[in-house]
Amino acid sequence: MLEKSIKELHEDLVSGKVTSDELVKEAIRKSHELNDECNAFVTILDDAKGVPVTDNLLSGIPYGVKDNYSTKGVLSTGSSNTLKDYVPFFTATSIENLEKSGAVMVNKTVLDEFGMGGTGTTGHTGIVRNPWDKTRMCAGSSAGSACAVAAGIYPYATGSDTGDSIRKPAAYCGIVGYKPTYGMISRYGLFPFASSLDHCGVLSRSVEDAAIVVDNMKGIDKYDMTSWDSKDFHLYDDLNLDVKGKRVCYIKEICDIENYSNPSDELKEHLKNFKEKLELCKELGMEVDAVSVNETLLKALSSVYVVISCAEATSNMSNLTGFIFGPRGEGNTYIEQMKDHRTKGFSPLIKRRFVIGSYVLQSENKDRYFHNAARARRLLVDEWKNIFKDYDAVILPVGSGPAKELENSANKLDENRAVLEDHLQIGNFGGFPSITIPDGFVSNLPVGLNITGNCYNDQTVLNIAYALESKMDYKNQVAKEVNHG
Amino acid sequence: MDNYRAMIGLEMHCEISETNTKVFSSATNSYSELPNSNIRPVDMAFPGTLPVVNKKAVEMALMASMILNCKQPEYIYFERKNYYYPDLPKGFQITQETKPAPMGIYGYLEYECNGETKKVRINNLHLEEDAAASEHLSSTTLINYNRAGVPLLELVTEPDINSADEAVAFLETMRSIYQYTGISEADSKKGQIRCDVNVSIMDKDKDPSDPNNWGTRVEIKNVNSFGGVRDAINYEIERQCDAKEDGTYDTVIEQETRRWDEEKGITVHMRSKVDAIDYRYFVEPNIPKYKVSDSWLEKIKANIPELANDRKEKYINNLGISEYDAKILVKEKSVSDYYEETLKLGANPKSSCNWITSVILGHLNKFYLDINDIYLKPKMLVDLIKMVEDGTISSKQAKEVLYESLTENKEPTKIVEEKGMKQIGDTDSINKIVNEVLEEQPNSIEQYKGGRTNIVDFLVGQVMKKTRGQANPAITRNMIIEEIEKR
Q1: Domain A6-243+457-470 annotated CATH 3.90.1300.10
Q2: Of B48, B51, B84, the CB nearest to A190
Q3: pLDDT digits (tens, 9 = 90+) for A268-292
Q4: In a designed cystine with B267, which of A304, A473, A484, B258 is the match (CB 3.0 to 4.6 A)?
Q5: Which helix (H) or strand (E) is A450 found in, with range?
Q6: Rounded to whole angstroms, how far apart are CA atoms A442 and A267?
Q7: Does A25 qualify as catalytic in the annotation?
Q8: What ipTM was predicted for this assembly?
């Protein structure tokens, strides 16, 4: 039942074929099953109840919330030991918006600690496994949300995306991941990682569902100065707008197999599959071009991301001292207590990032690292904005293949493949609307492609994704386990 | 000291007390006795909270920037100053770094010190948030977050001040500006004003415009009263001069941060320059850059109210008040406002000024009161002045009434009525008594007619005696002369 789309579920609820309460109970039951298998949830809300069904498509339907969203009265940990017992007294604006729509939260999903990580393995409750193959990761940081949506627990879950944290796990789990333009959804109540890069968004099994959910999450918020008024955006209503004549492009340096020395079979297959999907774009009446961008800039991508995100993260997480919330550290002075709290609370990966963040902001290093990263970020964004003068969207493959194995995930990437892994970060640098949709299978595992457009062009991005999705067979796909470990 | 010139720079922090809410939070901005009552989640940095700029606070900061003749920024943005301290819940303070664009840069202010006009250059003025207040007890520290997020204006001067007197005069001028603009009560008793003082000395015979001649700069942090500023500067100048005289200047005086110990009256070493904290400033990403339009600035400029100097000039030139009294009237805005209110209600400007400067201010000083604290409202003072003017009571009586009103919290009209102080003004009653007196004093009629006209004073006295001082003296006097001449 819960493997259906939002619209189908809504029709069933309206016709009385099923009640909201039945859906919620089923989602909770399935959540427990999945948690045993894949460890997707920090909290399952066993007391959640159905609500009256209204005209709103989301009313009465269960959904999941990434555990870095503040939810009043419900444990919100950010998957970190520093907040392992933290129960907030206010709810994030976007979740409040969903509540008002009648959506029913049934669980809080595991993430990489505070969203810092791309593997889904660093949460304080343990690693999240891919429902397609439990020896593989979901990617991160929205690992639990991707896992649960792919497993058919509910039609959607919220995510957050600072580098690719919605869009990478979506690809690895064979589902849709959409982060709208920066500021379309309020960040109030989202635990910050890197404020200038953080976006709220959604993971779902179809473009249509993603549009419905974001329509209900978005809106200007007096508590978030970076939010803007999007009341004239009707993402779902306008989903069918014709894409004929739209111009999309891909980037040669990223997509052409010749750029890779000793490409693996998976990479070859992944890129070949991607190029085939470009043909579908042409069949839809879109123009598809290859464009070239400055390779030096592309290679700077991941360093720029590390410098900016670590710097902001160091500062953003300075409130985690264990004094006002979180477990109080031991020690005789406030400094000792704070050190104890942070030493015990954070995983080594995060501490490493804090060290980097502090280092790049120190007065003697700031210009060389932090300011240069800001300059490079600007150059990259300008490069993309230039592309958007001629094209409605950039279309690129996500990652270098299907989900990675949990065991051998430390495989060294060659430099060029790193760009393939990291290019989604440009969407965060520029605040661009960006959506990943499944585009096929490699080694029997799902892979995805990404469509990114200029700021405020969410509708176009969704229209292209919607049209392309309709030409493929992966809409509403639910994970079918291919490897039993 | 005679051989040295002191160079003093001030950092003056003043809380903006007159906005409804805090600078980046919707919590109420007001002084509250009840700890932790004016707070929102953002003030305690609960995860996911975001700052929202208070536009009113920005407008006030820009207004101060204009009055200080500073250049206003083209874009407004804020920065994070990162450091750990329990009174700083976020682990950073949202502030503005000096460059490139605080609320104001490179201005100046003229102020008066001991009758001389002085000028101090302003390096910059910026808007930031206050930290929470810590109360250190013997074994524990209590934190009150009411103050966390209160808007704070920090003003940094160039080292153009040469004495403690000048420093205090400058600070008093600034306090007056903050009060007259309605930016702040600027009350140091409420901790709304806090200063850091930079002091160095140089040889007097050398050229002060050449930085090579400057001495070593010592910073004294957290001086919380004007008296403290005076004492700390004088102490520090003396310490540095003594070191020069002893020949120990180069070894003893280092570039350092010191703390003012109010109880002992000394400055104490806090940290050396090498231990300076690296605050790792960077632009606050949650507050978008905001373009400052010319029309906005013009609107703010048009709203700058009358300042103390404007009022002083007005009192002297239009109302005929002496310069001495005018200065007293404008020193505290609340007093000047009180005075203006009495004028509005029709008081004679000079009488009102006299009562305020002679009686009311004395009473305020004696009991450490603010003029807004007293029971006697402007309307009541005006009533009193009018009772004197129309002869209902004498000025001597008025003085008595005023004292009683101030100490007993009673309306002057009530006091006059209760005590039966009203002068007898109706001629019939006075005429009756005058005739009684003349009957009793036949000799005085003779004497008057014989040319001793000052005998009238004696007769007026007799009438007063009979009426226990309530007869109107002017009426009585005329009537006595009239009656004698009838006889």
Answers
A1: yes
A2: B48
A3: 999 999 999 999 999 999 999 999 9
A4: B258
A5: strand A445-452
A6: 9
A7: no
A8: 0.96
